[in-house]
Amino acid sequence: MKFQDNDTKMVVVSFVKNAGKIAFAAKEIDVGEWKGDMLAVGVTEKDMTKDENSKFQNSILKKLDRLLGGLLAEVSSEEDFTGKSGQSTVLRLPGLGSKRVGLIGLGQSASSPSAFRGLGEAVAAAAKTAQANSVAVVLASSEGLSNESKLGIASAIASGAVLGIHEDNRYKSESKKPQLKSLDILGLGTGPDLEKKLKYAEDVSSAIVFGRELVNSPANVLTPAALAEEASKIASSYSDVISANILTAEQCKELKMGSYLGVAAASDNPPYFIHLCYKPLSGPIKAKLALVGKGLTFDSGGYNIKTGPGCSIDVMKIDMGGSAAVLGSAKALGQIKPPGVEVHFIVASCENMISGTGMRPGDILTASNGKTIEVNNTDAEGRLTLADALVYACNQGVEKIVDLATLTGACIVALGPSIAGVFTPSDELAKEVFEASEISGEKFWRMPLEESYWESMKSGVADMVNTGGRPGGAITAALFLKQFVDEKVQWMHIDLAGPVWNEKKRVATGFGVSTLVEWVLKNSS
């Protein structure tokens, strides 16, 4: 299905073309016998301990060093490689089936998913530098690990490798394809359980790459129509479990979505309300969930235009980061096909622009639940679109809703660039999502929903204003959203304004996808 917009796209691209396909395999083979371009060894600082003769005490390092005539110990000393996190050294040496041996530092100890995902990313970076096609990864110390731990570690390494080789070169005139074609994971077991876990890592990682590429796409390419098109493609690709219902502005008007349409009114590019629904192939439904993502494909601020230092108008293509997490999750779940759970993926997509038809400061909008909103700031537009999206989600008969939005700068001020803020009245839902985040390795922090702050959101002429004062801005934004959620529904708001974007590299992170997928699977089992 084609969706119309009035923007002339200067660049035509497709998504996840350069995700890079790596063939993963789990093997039990002696490190000295493995043949390929590079053998990468993940080492902790403890693994690098040497005896009085400057010889390794770790059995794997000792074996490799013996096969290389002591050169491994010698080079690690000369380069002051101690196994600290972020350290790596790669040697091209004769004497092994592998052309190169790399040591990748894991720090004092490694136990978290993020540490092993970091190992996978470091291996991908080393492989890129060495132009290696075939790589093996082994941990210097894997004794005493449970089977469950081994599965989790292998999955995290594989995920890190996929994300590590990804470079979004779609908008560059010249680009190199990733060299890495195969990755063998040694010493963590073999068998169908591990193969299934590696397949899962691939599915989720490719969905994260998809989310990154959506956020990286500029607003002249990723219009609301283009976002709706991408959502429809997900439904077409996994039509056995996912269906799509894309609503036009006229259909949204019939549903009385005045809050959402108020934001969309200024743009020449029409809005599209995206609703995907996942239903398992068979069996009973034990849980009905909704994932709601903010989908502003560009945010100028409206008449309260973004101006001055730090306004970040140049990166406001990222204001659909919540929708990227939601659609990325849909893509992953379409591949994984979990039983027992129905999931609704909802995005009220539009642009916040300036024109004679646009909403003005002081306008009063009526949301689809009948509540009225005095617009005292047109740049607090995301919550206006989410208001109608949350009402719509509740009307699908779901029991739990998680919404994700690049909602406030206040949340970045509070938690910095790498932690998302979590707001929910439900301790049970908080527990579920935080348990999912422990597996994904993404960082979240629960924030208070301080009801007394609602005083600052009261209007003299409507039910509420759309923004309070500067103090506690992330909290009052969450309290605003709460007005549009049925009290019987467990609800969580995630403000991911910080972690959705890597400011240093100037690229998207794909934040949220991994945690959402884990959360859905927890509700499936």
UniProtKB/TrEMBL annotation:
<comment type="similarity">
    <text>Belongs to the peptidase M17 family.</text>
</comment>
<dbReference type="Pfam" id="PF00883">
    <property type="entry name" value="Peptidase_M17"/>
</dbReference>
<protein>
    <recommendedName>
        <fullName>Cytosol aminopeptidase domain-containing protein</fullName>
    </recommendedName>
</protein>
<dbReference type="InterPro" id="IPR011356">
    <property type="entry name" value="Leucine_aapep/pepB"/>
</dbReference>
<dbReference type="Pfam" id="PF02789">
    <property type="entry name" value="Peptidase_M17_N"/>
</dbReference>
<keyword id="KW-0479">Metal-binding</keyword>
<dbReference type="GO" id="GO:0006508">
    <property type="term" value="P:proteolysis"/>
</dbReference>
<keyword id="KW-0378">Hydrolase</keyword>
<feature type="domain" description="Cytosol aminopeptidase">
    <location>
        <begin position="377"/>
        <end position="384"/>
    </location>
</feature>
<dbReference type="GO" id="GO:0030145">
    <property type="term" value="F:manganese ion binding"/>
</dbReference>
<keyword id="KW-0645">Protease</keyword>
<dbReference type="GO" id="GO:0005737">
    <property type="term" value="C:cytoplasm"/>
</dbReference>
<dbReference type="InterPro" id="IPR043472">
    <property type="entry name" value="Macro_dom-like"/>
</dbReference>
<keyword id="KW-0031">Aminopeptidase</keyword>
<dbReference type="InterPro" id="IPR023042">
    <property type="entry name" value="Peptidase_M17_leu_NH2_pept"/>
</dbReference>
<comment type="subunit">
    <text>Homohexamer (dimer of homotrimers).</text>
</comment>
<dbReference type="InterPro" id="IPR008283">
    <property type="entry name" value="Peptidase_M17_N"/>
</dbReference>
<dbReference type="InterPro" id="IPR000819">
    <property type="entry name" value="Peptidase_M17_C"/>
</dbReference>
<dbReference type="GO" id="GO:0070006">
    <property type="term" value="F:metalloaminopeptidase activity"/>
</dbReference>
